[in-house]
Specification:
The complex is a heterodimer of chains A (110) and B (113). Chain A has 110 residues and is an all-beta fold. Chain A is built from no helices and eleven strands. Chain B is an all-beta fold and 113 residues long. In chain B, strands 2, 4, 5, 6, 9, 10 and 11 form a seven-stranded mixed β-sheet that branches. A four-stranded antiparallel β-sheet of chain B has the order 1-3-8-7, with no helix packed on it. Chain B is globular, with a radius of gyration of 13 Å. Classes of the chains: A mainly beta (110), B mainly beta (113). Chains A and B meet through strand 5 and strand 10 of A and strand 5 and strand 10 of B.
Chain lengths: 110, 113
């Protein structure tokens, strides 16, 4: 069963615009992670945010976490065509197992 | 620095045949995970190992699926006999600890005819 649901399911933007993806989950978590998957490739880890953190930055990425609403958002600023990929959130509930969401397909047009 | 290596990258076989997928994790990583990805069900965890020991196989769909990790640098996922509904992309991932980010291989695209 999937813990997280991303929305939107698909997003199309122009290069230079910002992209925001949201993730909602159902139960208390320890950590939340975001991964990227390029077509035909494996997932690549982007950023990890702990349950006691509210915001984290990494380069052009900004992640927020609201544990009261059981939701997280991933913001990619100044998007590039190379950011075209699917993005997944993944949560762990104080175990070694990650449960992945349904993913957002991002298309960035040059 | 080699990442997680999976083989084969593509496998096409007929229903009823045995299929063996292989994975070499990143050296030094204590955890190894097997996932299956389909359009309908998304990314599902099948089984994971810690220090070569299977910890949780609750995601393995049926007895037709089995996984082994004979040593720290090699794992296999076997399907016998295979069925068309097993068609999917199978990923292997490894991590230093259970909490650390997982590193994924590029997957095996399996088609059962």
């Amino acid at each position: 069963s999937q813990q997280g649901e991303e929305d939107p399911q698909a997003l199309s933007i122009q290069e230079g615009e910002n992209a925001t993806m949201n993730c909602s989950y159902k139960t208390s978590i320890n950590n939340l992670q975001w991964y990227r998957q390029n077509s035909g490739r494996g997932l690549v880890h982007l950023i990890l945010i702990r349950s006691n953190e509210r915001e984290k930055h990494s380069g052009r990425l900004r992640v927020t976490l609201d544990t009261s609403k059981k939701s997280s958002s991933l913001l990619i600023t100044a998007s590039r065509a190379a950011d075209t990929a699917s993005y997944f959130c993944a949560t762990d509930r104080y175990t070694d197992k990650l449960i992945f969401g349904t993913g957002t397909r991002l298309q960035v047009f040059p | 620095d080699a990442g997680v290596i999976q083989s084969p990258r593509h496998e096409v076989t007929e229903m009823g045949q045995e299929v063996t997928l292989r994975c070499k994790p990143i050296s030094g990583h204590d955890y190894l995970f097997w996932y299956r990805q389909t359009m309908m069900r998304g990314l599902e965890l099948l089984i994971y190992f810690n220090n070569n020991v299977p910890i949780d196989d609750s995601g393995m769909p049926e007895d037709r699926f089995s996984a082994k990790m004979p040593n720290a640098s090699f794992s296999t996922l076997k399907i016998q006999p295979s069925e068309p509904r097993d068609s999917a992309v199978y990923f292997c991932a490894s991590s230093l600890t259970g909490e650390q980010p997982q590193h994924f291989g590029d997957g095996t695209r399996l088609s059962i005819l």
